[in-house]
Amino acid sequence: MGETEAGHEPAPGLVLLSRQGTPRLLGPLLLEHLGLEALPPLVAADGLDGLLTAAGFHPREGVRGVWEREGRALLAGEEALEDGGRLVWTRPVPWSSERVAERVRYLSLASHDLRGSLANIRSYAALLLNGRVPLEPKAQRGLETILRNADRSLSFAQDFFDSSRAELGALACERERQPLLPILDAAVERMRAASSAASVALVMDPLPDLPDVEVDAGRIQHAVEAFVHHHLVRAQPGEELHVRAVSLGPQVRVEVRRDGAPVPEEDIAAVFQCEERAFRERKLEDPLRIFLARQEVEAHGGQVGAQTDAGGSTLFLTLPVSLVRELAHPAGWQA
C-alpha cells in the first residue's frame, strides 16, 4: 500500500509540533501532501486531528488512519514526544476506499479457504484422538503431531491475514472501556502451559490501581501473549518472566520482563521489524506475531518498544487512557 514502482514506500511528510514556539516543518513534503502553501496556525495540543481538520481533511469512514479531501487521500499519524510535543507525519494513499474494501474481501476469501481446510484436518485428528478408537502408540503420536501443527498453522494464518488487513487500515477492533487486569490475567493463564513446558516461571506482578482503558480485549491480550511467547523461545530453564503494568499520566504501560541473559542491542532494536528478522532468522512465525502485536497496539493509538540491560530484556506497550482518538504511524513505516 503506497509503494512506488520501485517497490519502496514514498518518504513521509513531517512536522514537529513543539509545546512552545511555532510548528517546524521537516522538509517540504507535508505541505505538498496537504495541498497547502503554508501551515495553518497550530500548537502541539492540536496534534494530528487539528492539523488535518484545519487543512480541510476528514477521516475516511471505516478505514483507520486514512484522511481525505476532494479526492486526495492521506495516511497520517502522530507520535507523542518526551518533551510534550508531537511529531505528525503524512503519506499519500493511492488506493481508493473501494480498492481497499475489495482487497479486504479478497483476504477474507483466502483466509476462509485456508483456515477451513486446516480446521477440517484438525477436527478429524481430534476425533481420532478422543479415545473411542484404539490406536497404536506410533499412530497416536502421529495424530498428536498433526493436531499440534494444525493448531500452529491456524494461529499463523490468523496472524498473517490480520496483519495484512492492518496494513490496509482495516484491522477489526471492537473497543470498549474496561479494566486492564482481566486482560493481563487471561494472557498469563493462556501462556502458563507453554512457560511450564519451557521450565520458565511466568509471574503476574501485583498491579497498582489502574484506570480503565478503551480497547479490544482480544487484540491487547494477543499482543501481551506475543510478548510472552517471544521471551519464552529465548529463555533458559530457570529464568523468570514478569508481566506488570503501571499508570503513566495519560497512558498505561504494560511490560513483559525477562530476567536472564541480556539481548544484544542489534537484536533488541529489530524486535518489531518483521521482514528484517524473517530474512535473518529464516522463519516468519515469531517476527509476524510480534509485528501484528505492534499493529494491534498502534490501532489503539498506543506504542510498543523494547529495552535491554545487564539483567535481561523488556518488551512493553503503552495505551492511551484518554477517550480522545489518537493515531500512531503504521508498523510498516520506520522513522
UniProtKB/TrEMBL annotation:
It holds the Pfam family HisKA. Residues 109-323 form the Histidine kinase domain. It catalyses: ATP + protein L-histidine = ADP + protein N-phospho-L-histidine. Keywords: Kinase, Transferase. One of its GO terms (biological process) is osmosensory signaling via phosphorelay pathway. The keyword DNA-binding does not apply. It is an enzyme of class 2 (transferase). Its EC number is 2.7.13.3. GO terms for molecular function: phosphorelay response regulator activity; phosphorelay sensor kinase activity; protein kinase activator activity. The keyword Cell inner membrane does not apply. InterPro entries: BphY/WalK/GraS-like, HATPase_C_sf, HATPase_dom, His_kinase_dom, HisK_dim/P_dom, HisK_dim/P_sf. It comes from the Bacteria. SMART domains: HisKA (SM00388). This is histidine kinase. It comes from Corallococcus terminator.
